[in-house]
Amino acid sequence: MRPSLRVTSVSIAAPDPRALAAFYGRLLGLAVTTTEPPRAGFPPEDGWAQIRPPSTVGGPTLNFEYESGYVAPTWPSAPGRQQIQVHLDIAVDDVDAAVEWARKAGATLAEFQPQEHVRVMLDPVGHPFCLFATR
Length: 135
Prior knowledge:
2,3-Dihydroxybiphenyl 1,2-Dioxygenase, domain 1; four-stranded mixed beta sheet; alpha/beta; globular
């Protein structure tokens, strides 16, 4: 019998996890719920942060973890370059309005757009995320 398994969170590497959590908080309209300061002997960007959506909203918790050797992924992926390990798909009511909101929050529109009704955006440290219409 298969044991009960469910995804509860996604962890995202970042050169400054608290700053990246603040970006996703602005983007998604959610508060950063937990932060940890730099560890002793580590740079000031070290630490950890989390966004936990309210149970009424649903969705996974987003964890942001310090990565000292962080290298932004290449979009689209290219041989010999840093590959995308994971990306977020974000459902929206209006793709154009969501793109503008994401830009105001600090994202950029990716140059390469592979689908007509999906917009690939890049967060401030280069992780791609997709905005797609729910209608």
